[in-house]
Amino acid sequence: MRNTIAANELELKGKAARKAARKLATISADIKNTALHNVADGLKAREEEILAANEQDIANGRRRGLEEYFLDRLLLTPERLQALAHDVRGIAALPDPIGEMLDMRNMPNGLKVGKRRVPLGVIGAIYESRPNVTIDISSLCLKSGNAIILRGGSDAINSNTALATLVKDAIAGAGIPEDAVQVMETTDRAVVGQMLRAKGIIDLLIPRGSQALINRVASEATIPAITGGVGVCHTYVDRQADMDMALDIVNNAKVSRPSVCNALDTVIVHSASAQSFLPALAKRWEAIGVEMRCDTRALSMLGPSAATRAVQVTEEDWQTEHLSLTAGVRVVDSLDEALDHIEMYGSGHSEAIVTEDYAAAMRFLDEVDAGAVFVNASTRFNDGGQFGLGAEVAISTDKMHARGPMGLKELTSYKWTALGSGHIRE
Q1: What is the mean pLDDT of the chain?
Q2: Range of 112's domain?
Q3: Residue 185 lies in a domain
Q4: Backbone angles phi, psi at 255, to 5 degrees
Q5: Hey, which of 20, 93, 256, 376 has its CA 20 to 30 A from 222?
Q6: 186-205 pLDDT, tens per residue?
């Protein structure tokens, strides 16, 4: 019975979304931008209502004993709503990708052939916590001409409902069919399975959440889906690193917002730098409360103590996206050793090197296999807004069809167009 109810809701909303997508694909950039500005304005005008809904979700989450990193992702504040509005206006300011002509050329017979950028159609989003995703994905889908079916987690049901209602009202006010944004109202988990098999309804499925969710999508989806996104991220401090710069970068990557996917999970330090770098890092992190899970060499330089919060690392730690004030620490004797560690344990998300050695930097850029690779910069910059995309629907660690932050162009495809004047093939 539960599966039938979920399937019926998805079918009805899917049909409405596909109908709206056909119209949305032809709507002008001006109208879409007006809708986006309506969304941004609504985030301020309805701030009190949205925050009240979010307070309900936070209170419910605390009663259920949700972990702090999860509650941080769930939390909305006036500052976070303001940042969301800023991102939405940034999306409105970007060029409209739809209709862009790619690789247009004249064939020897006079036929004009090229690719025309088009929307994918209907995007499905399954996400846990993270009510900001409701705004980010809806805004990017609208600007790229796609309808969206949203399925947020039960932990954020009140926040997501308030935000989705805002979006639907905002786009309707601009003349866009409100059916272009669909929200799965049931919190029944059966709907997730239905969405994973929604061939003919959803053109691309985007999951945002835990490793368990990503794994489920990878194993069960029968439609195109983004199946990478977990971040096990490293920063390598080279033998020729500027120590002050390295401290600032590593600290920012770990503590600026530890609950997000581009936060540092392991710092790797060249042995020539470790004797000076690690005690300085431990001192800085002592005041913040970061636990350092150290290999034997790093631990010998710091000593296990409550003050430095340094403990022996485990094999599992190297493989873990911590999402908290916890970091693995390893000492190596060469860049090759650092590259080997990243190849073995990295998830292909965000990797960084701090060095003044140009050759080492170029090797790192060339040899590290990740969606975003940084030289002398924090991994926290792996973000659609920071990369000039306005926002992102996800950060993909896949290699097909999109990699890294997914913005407007990553939500499009193309169709070949051929312009003739009575051409026939002999």
Answers
A1: 94
A2: 2-226+406-419
A3: yes
A4: -105, -15
A5: 20
A6: 878 889 999 999 999 999 99
Do 284 and 314 have their domain in common?
Answer: yes
Question: For residue 185, what are the CA distances in angstroms to 47, 151, 161, 372?
Answer: 22, 8, 8, 35
Query: Is residue 157 a part of any domain in this protein?
Result: yes
CA–CA separation, 67 vs 86, rounded Å?
29
The total of structural domains in the chain comes to 2
Sign of CA dihedral 396, 401, 402, 403: positive
The arithmetic mean of pLDDT across residues 241-256, rounded, is 98
List the alpha helices (DSSP H) in 292-399.
Answer: 296-302, 315-318, 335-345, 358-367
What per-residue confidence (pLDDT) applies to 211?
82
pLDDT of residue 4: 65
43 with 183, same domain?
yes
Q: Where are the beta strands (DSSP E) in 160-203?
A: 181-183
* DSSP per-residue codes, 211-236: HHHHHHHHHH--S-B-------EEEE
Q: Do 268 and 212 reside in the same domain of the chain?
A: no
Tens of pLDDT, residues 379-409 = 999 999 899 988 889 899 888 888 999 999 9
Residue 370 lies in a domain: yes
Q: Any idea what the CATH number is for the domain that residue 368 is in? A: 3.40.309.10
Give the integer Cα–Cα distance in Å for 266 and 250: 9
Same domain, 51 and 195: yes
Q: Kind of pairing, strands 122-127 and 204-208?
A: parallel
Residues 6+ apart with CB under 8 A from 95: none
Please list the residues that pair with 127 across neighbouring strands: 152, 208
Q: Would you state the pLDDT for residue 6?
A: 66
Helices and strands in the chain: count of H runs, count of E runs:
15, 16
51 CB contacts (<8 Å, ≥6 apart)? 76, 77, 78, 81
pLDDT for 371 equals: 95
- Using CA of residue 94, residue 97, residue 101, residue 103, what is the dihedral sign? positive
pLDDT in tens, 325-354: 999 999 999 999 999 999 999 999 999 999
Q: What is the per-residue pLDDT for 304?
A: 67
Q: What is the pLDDT of residues 67-101, one digit of tens each?
A: 888 898 899 999 999 999 999 999 999 999 999 99
Between CA 117 and CA 317 the distance in angstroms is 43
3-state secondary structure of 53: helix
